[in-house]
Amino acid sequence: MIVKKMFKRFAIYAVPAAEDPLFLLASRWLGWDSAHAQHFEPPKGLDKPSWDKLTARPRKYGFHGTLRPPMVTAHGVGREDIICVMQDVALHHHAFEAALELTNMDGFFALTLATHQNEMHALAQELVLATDGLRATPSEQELERRRAVGLTKRQDELLRAHGYPYVLDEFRYHMTLSGVVDPMQQAEVADIVRNHLPKNRLSLKMDRLTLLGEDGAGMFHVITTARLSF
Description:
Layout: E1 9-14, H1 21-30, E2 32-33, E3 38-39, H2 48-59, E4 65-71, H3 79-91, E5 96-105, E6 108-113, H4 118-131, H5 140-147, H6 153-162, E7 174-176, H7 186-194, E8 203-206, E9 208-214, E10 220-227
């Protein structure tokens, strides 16, 4: 499936299969299914203002783990160029399964790798380096926006070199499930999030790379996938 639509940015994510229970439940929790372009109402037991406060910020990206952060393409570069690079990278990596756990990451909740996965880090690094020549140089305004959160010297070097500060040795795989939560509410929110995920062991079947595009309204859509070799 290749979605024929105009997009302003592209990203390569780790996204479970569209029928995977984890993808379906996490997408419903966030309020956006990037594979089916479907919005959701608040889950039972949560009013819309409370739910929006928790999920509005990550919602537009859909449920995902970032490998190649969102980028504006350079002049003359199209989605087909990104697809070719993504397919080439996929051919050189084997599928694997990764156990996940719910983690409080400095105030926001995400699923992270239960154990270090060299293959995930290798995938992310190769995708960043392989697509560097396809992206436009970030504007000074974009660079300053990134720096406003307070970057380390190394993160600023990565921002200038690759357009994003949390790549290569600063990469930490995560699948965001909330915005920043008030410290007094974090224990309660952790329980709420758990209740909207599969009850069995949490894991990611990492068997594909997924290209997504950001539409004019800021929502990310699955465009196509590239299967990892088996």
